[in-house]
Amino acid sequence: MPYCLSNLVSSKKIAFTLAEVLITLGIIGVVAAMTIPTLISEYQDKQFKTAYKKAYSDLNQVLLQSLAYNEMPYRSSKHDTAAIKAEFAIIKSGLKITKQCDEDSFYSCWAKGDTLCGGACTSGNVDDGIDMENGGPRPERLEANQFPFIDSSGRSWSPYVTDENIFVVDTNGLAGPNRFGKDRWIFTFANQDGTRTSSGYPVKVRPYYSKDFLTVDSFCKRPPCYYYTWLYER
What percent of the chain has pLDDT over 90? Predict the structure, then answer.
């Protein structure tokens, strides 16, 4: 008899109770809820970072090609409207255009979203009253032949204002989030020493800001804006 009882106990199958299964699933759900959003955000940031580097590379190639063919205009001063018109025409000719907009169709090429303020806005917290739509690029801050376009990669390009060599790109075009330091970036033409070209001929492209913004600024309204890190660091 003892043998039979022992044999019966040893052959009894071991299984989880319903409560144990539910507790385990609950733990898995909590862990997933904590980690999946972070993984998705990191993946999206990697895509934005890669697109930023590609836009920089393509714009730099356009500049180098224009210099090789003596097409780049001489900039007489920091505020040279004729120069920026010629510079932007070179950018358009170096990138395959799929859509060109004018003043009336401006937002068909450049989605509403973050703008750059320059001296038109004050720094501080967004909740304290920074006007997210005040600044550029906007139709009234540009002239004919300066309006944005979309290239064959789906990127939107535009000058910031009428007379300065500040160019902006939205690397995923009309799609969101339309934020500077995320899918929108700022480039300028520079001298050999890296300083912005105020007069003369540029030799390379660089980010308008060679630093990161971790707090709100008129050129970074939704920090962080990794203008330096995402381009130059791996």
Answer: 64
Interior angle at CA 115, CA 110 and CA 117, nearest 5: 145
Q: Is the pTM of this model over 0.85?
A: no
Tell whether the torsion through CA atoms of 17, 19, 20 and 22 is positive or negative: positive
Residue 13 included in any domain:
no
In the numeric block, which tokens belong to residue 92? Answer: 């358009």
Q: List C-alpha distances in Å: 53 to 58, 60, 186.
A: 9, 11, 12
What is the sign, positive or negative, of the torsion defined by CA atoms of 215, 218, 224, 230? negative
Over residues 122-180, the pLDDT tens digits come to 544 445 444 555 688 999 899 989 999 999 999 999 999 999 999 999 999 999 999 99
Nearest to 83 by CA among 199, 205, 203, 188: 199
Domain count along the chain: 1
- Is 134 within a domain? yes
Question: pLDDT tens digit string along 86-106?
Answer: 999 999 999 999 999 999 999
Angstrom distances, CA of residue 79 to CA of 43, 162, 164, 207, 220: 40, 8, 5, 19, 23
For residue 194, what are the domain limits?
A: 21-232
Residue 100 belongs to a domain: yes
